[in-house]
Amino acid sequence: MIQGRRSLLVTGQERLLLREPEGGAAPVARLEAGVVGELIGCSGRWCEVSAGGYDGWLPRDAFYGVYPDEIVD
Asked: Counting C-beta atoms within 10 Å of the first and last residue's C-beta, which end of the chain has fewer, N or C?
């Protein structure tokens, strides 16, 4: 079955899902490598994602699922 939503795979080490798209923002959750989530949108260095029941922001180099300069609305 084809889904109309984008998925992502967290790569590398454990990543912090942040409340805002900035490095010093408060963490919402810790995501282990291998976690699969939903890509909500990307612009610039940050992407809004949903994973494990949490919504927040990850830098685009923290996961697989989007091209380096791709804009996702």
From this structure: N
